[in-house]
Amino acid sequence: MRLRVLIASIISVVALGAATSAYASSSPSASPSSGGAGVAPGPGPRSTTDHPVVQGYTAKIKNGVAYAPSYAPAAVQKMIWAGDKIRLKPYCYAGGHGRWNDSCYDCSGTVSYVLHAAGLINESMDSSDMMGWGQGGRGHWVTIYTNPDHAFIQIAGIRLDTSAYQDPNPAPGSGPRWRPDVTSSSGFSSRHPSGL
How many domains does the chain have? Predict the structure, then answer.
């Protein structure tokens, strides 16, 4: 009888240990994007030529191409990939306002193009219109900087802009180009899409 009780006790301890180990290895963990709720994001999409991805929360520029962060919301990734599609287009006044797929883009046409790609707008806006769009202030993932004369967009730590302002190594040509984020946005209103 004692042997039977001892064997049953050993089996119970082993089973409890295995269950605890299995629970610990599958339990969620907190991350910066989970708000400490204990749920880490998945690995995100795979990187492809059309949809380049870099692991983490911050976009990267490699040879002029923007790589979307793997942990970014889908809308943010779509904006970055849309910016990649027009990053070599030349600048022209009113470009991107008559049609989405234009031969050239101006500053607000560029911003409108990426917002449209994420499903956030249906019609292009000029920079003055953008001053009242969305919510005021900087967003977590996306911020539009705008005034009556110019607009550009910061997405996941990089910016898409037709101006080379504060770009230490500007890409050749005019028009939309990926650039480092600005250190000063003086003279611009900041707006962001709701939730981003």
Answer: 2
